[in-house]
Amino acid sequence: MRSRSAPFDKQRVSLIMLIFISSSFLDTRGDDMTSNQTINTGATKGGPYSHGIKAGNLIFVSGQVGKRDPNTKLMLSSDIETQTRETLEKLKRVLNAGGASVRDIAKMTVFMVNIDDFSKMNEVYEKFLRDNGITEKFPARTTVEVSGLAAKDILIEIDCFAVI
Prior knowledge:
Blueprint: H1 5-26, E1 37-39, E2 52-55, E3 58-64, H2 80-97, E4 105-112, H3 118-131, E5 140-145, E6 156-163
Parallel strand pairs: 4-5
Antiparallel strand pairs: 1-2, 2-3, 3-6, 4-6
Helix pairs in contact: 2-3
């Protein structure tokens, strides 16, 4: 006769293994995961959020946009290539302030108001990664078209997380 507890025990062992593996991945350096560190680049923010958060060996970077005029709050550029380049440079500054580099990025999310600009954005994106030492093993990425961003002249916003 089969024991009815076998499947439960197997599930429990699987759950314990998943928790162990997850905690090992998230905290490979033994840092206290309960004490998140705020990353501040000194740049102005558009609201109540942090540029980035360092949690153990993970860095989460808030969505960044290109350069804006400090007085008018309007974008200094109206083309997707320049806004993409500036946005990626801002992501890099936040990563560097948190002790990471572009090569540590595991995942990026790209929000675009016009997906027809995808190929232009993608050219700048790839050049930026290559210029920062990534020639293979590119980060995972999701790109979505959105109906709008924080201001109507913003064409692109990018966030990411990195593992250090």
